Amino acid sequence: MKKRDEFITYLLELMQPLGPVSARAMFGGYGIYLDDIMFALVTDDILYLKTNKETLPEYEQRGLQPFRYERNGKPFNMSYSEAPDDVMEDQDAMRYWANKAIDAALKNKRSIKTSKKTV
Predict the structure, then answer these.
(1) How does 75-103 read in b/e, with b if 16+ C-beta sit within 10 Å?
(2) pLDDT at position 67, please?
(3) Residue 59's pLDDT band (boundaries 50, 70, 90)?
(4) 33-71: string of b/e by CB count within 10 Å (b at 16+)?
(5) Is 33 in contact with 24 (CB distance < 8 Å)?
(6) pTM
(7) Which of 3, 14, 91, 109 is buried most deeply by CB count within 10 Å?
(8) For residue 66, what are the β-bridge partners?
(9) CB 93 within 8 A of CB 84
(10) 87 by DSSP, 3-state: which?
(11) For residue 57, what are the contacts with CB-CB under 8 A and spacing of at least 6?
């Protein structure tokens, strides 16, 4: 088994108290889902959690970097930030931060549905 697969397996085990969590391969990394809600992504064995305008300041205060990618030579930040180190060792910390990410993902999904209805 690859190191990345072991890391994903470990994350999913750590996240099991959240409910039916799964990982789907995507773009050389993985999306982490609770039911059909993507609330995290993993690339290069780094866990990034979904953020929004309410939760992003807490990540920034801790110096946690956003997920960045480059397109056409320009860098883009996605609304996912590195998870704090303590989530990898402490299931309570994982639950706290993952629940914030799930809430951010749900709010994002609702705002997308609302904006589609008004178009």
Answers:
(1) eeeebbbbbbeebeeeeebbeebbebbbb
(2) 95
(3) very high
(4) bbeeebbbbbbeeebbbbbbeebeeebeeeebebbeeee
(5) yes
(6) 0.86
(7) 14
(8) 81
(9) yes
(10) helix
(11) none
Residue 27 CA to residue 96 CA, distance in Å, equals: 27
Residue 33 in tokens:
């889902």
Q: Where are the domains of the chain?
A: 3-109
Amino acid symbol at 115:
S
* Architecture of the domain whose range is 3-109: 2-Layer Sandwich (3.30)
- pLDDT, position 113: 54
Instruction: Give me the long-range contacts of 79-86 (CB less than 8 A, separation at least 24).
Output: 79/50, 79/51, 79/52, 79/104, 79/108, 80/40, 80/41, 80/48, 80/49, 80/50, 80/51, 81/48, 81/49, 81/51, 81/56, 82/46, 82/47, 82/48, 82/49, 83/40, 83/47, 83/48, 83/49
